[in-house]
């Protein structure tokens, strides 16, 4: 790719946005980034600070993005109810595309997730889905902000003449600090606290999820699929599930994570023991670990997302994904899941964020 490809990455500080940004930069693209606040990003050629919920300020800020050829929409805003999720997130993506209506956009990609099949936060798992999750499955009844984002994307693609792709990752694994949905960093902090305090390293989720077949999505694999879909004509106007390509059970992966941290595996108690409760004192404990090991002084609240890992690990139904749409069109990226976790753990140690 050449400098003629100018990517606008919306949500560039998150897992999906930062990983695709670095990949595109390495591929020779010009990378324009957008987030709510001013920030310096090593892969960004031009950063735009904008609150997409505010139309006038968004339109003014997007005067700096009138040359973009590709859009990667990797953000959302959580609200108190799903009706509000639908309203706010539809407004945000609409404001974005209205603000670049005259730009020479060729393709726009939207990153959502498996709540497309499992239901919204308000209706989560009320309907038992077919597994593996199929990309051609019908939408579930009820409001879902993923559907609202898709509808705006489809509308704007037709109006403005660009192709689209929708990417539905499972639990995301990668290295980023301050992300609200970061299981690898959360488990690294949990393991480090258990090792420092002698607490048992117990799997905190449901018995169903502990024993079930499941999968996850390495942020590197998602980035590769985003790049592939943006540059492959056969991928135009398609939804794509995206996972590592292997499956696992927590019964054995938990033991491998424990071994990485030189911890014994605690006996599973037979029911969920949520991290949000067992780690209620984590802020004070983590401050002591930081001081004892001369770590970067990052509050535990910026590292661990107890609530999100609890939600993923405490599901009471089987969750894994089919990738027919991209596999049959030539996308063949694969990532062993244990290495997804271990690579993040290695980075956390190397940057002195967790103890060695």
Descriptors:
single chain, 356 residues, Rossmann fold, two-stranded parallel sheet, 11% strand, SDR family oxidoreductase, PRISE-like_Rossmann-fold, NAD(P)-bd_dom_sf
Describe the structure.
The protein has 356 residues and is an alpha/beta fold. It has helices at residues 15-26, 55-61, 82-99, 115-118, 145-160, 183-197, 207-211, 219-231, 250-260, 275-278, 282-293, 300-303, 306-313, 324-327, 337-350; strands at 6-10, 30-35, 46-49, 70-73, 107-111, 163-169, 172-173, 217-218, 238-242. Strands 3-2-1-4-5-6-9 form a 7-stranded parallel sheet, with helices on both faces. It has a two-stranded parallel sheet with strand order 7-8. The mean pLDDT is 95.
Number of domains: 2
The oligomeric state of the chains shown is single chain
> Termini separation (Å)?
39 Å
State the CATH architecture of the largest domain: 3-Layer(aba) Sandwich
Query: How much helical structure, as a percent, in the residues?
Result: 40-55%
Pfam family, one: PRISE
Protein name: SDR family oxidoreductase
Domain PRISE-like Rossmann-fold: 64-355
In terms of topology, how is this protein built?
Layout: E1 6-10, H1 15-26, E2 30-35, E3 46-49, H2 55-61, E4 70-73, H3 82-99, E5 107-111, H4 115-118, H5 145-160, E6 163-169, E7 172-173, H6 183-197, H7 207-211, E8 217-218, H8 219-231, E9 238-242, H9 250-260, H10 275-278, H11 282-293, H12 300-303, H13 306-313, H14 324-327, H15 337-350
Helix pairs in contact: 1-8, 2-3, 3-5, 6-11
């Amino acid at each position: 790719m050449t400098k003629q490809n100018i990517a606008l990455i919306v949500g560039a500080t998150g897992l999906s946005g930062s990983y695709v940004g670095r990949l595109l930069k390495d591929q020779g693209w010009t990378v324009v980034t957008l987030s709510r606040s001013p920030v310096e990003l090593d892969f960004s050629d031009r950063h735009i600070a904008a609150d997409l919920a505010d139309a006038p300020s968004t339109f003014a800020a997007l005067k700096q993005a009138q040359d973009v050829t590709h859009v990667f929409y990797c953000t959302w805003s959580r609200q108190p109810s799903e009706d509000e999720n639908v309203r706010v997130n539809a407004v945000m993506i609409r404001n974005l595309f209205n603000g670049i209506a005259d730009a020479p956009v060729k393709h726009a990609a939207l990153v959502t997730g498996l709540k497309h099949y499992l239901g919204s936060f308000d209706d989560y798992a009320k309907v038992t889905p077919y597994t593996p999750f199929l990309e051609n499955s019908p939408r579930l009844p009820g409001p879902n902000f993923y559907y609202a984002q898709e509808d705006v994307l489809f509308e704007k693609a037709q109006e403005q003449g660009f192709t689209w792709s929708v990417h539905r990752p499972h639990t995301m694994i990668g290295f980023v600090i301050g992300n609200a949905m970061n299981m690898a960093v959360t488990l690294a902090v949990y393991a480090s606290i258990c090792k420092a305090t002698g607490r048992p390293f117990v799997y905190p989720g449901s018995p169903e999820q502990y024993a079930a077949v499941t999968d996850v999505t390495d942020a590197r694999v998602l980035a590769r699929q985003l790049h592939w879909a943006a540059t492959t004509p056969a991928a135009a106007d398609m939804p794509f599930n995206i996972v590592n390509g292997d499956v696992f059970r927590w019964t054995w992966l938990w033991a491998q994570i424990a071994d990485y941290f030189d911890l014994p595996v605690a006996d599973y108690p037979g029911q969920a023991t949520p991290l949000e409760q067992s780690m209620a004192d984590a802020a004070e404990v983590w401050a002591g670990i930081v001081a004892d090991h001369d770590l970067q002084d990052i509050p535990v609240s910026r590292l661990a997302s107890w609530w999100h890992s609890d939600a993923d690990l405490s599901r009471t139904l089987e969750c894994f994904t089919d990738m027919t749409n991209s596999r049959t069109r030539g996308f063949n990226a694969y990532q062993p899941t244990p290495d997804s976790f271990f690579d993040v753990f290695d980075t956390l140690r190397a940057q002195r964020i967790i103890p060695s």
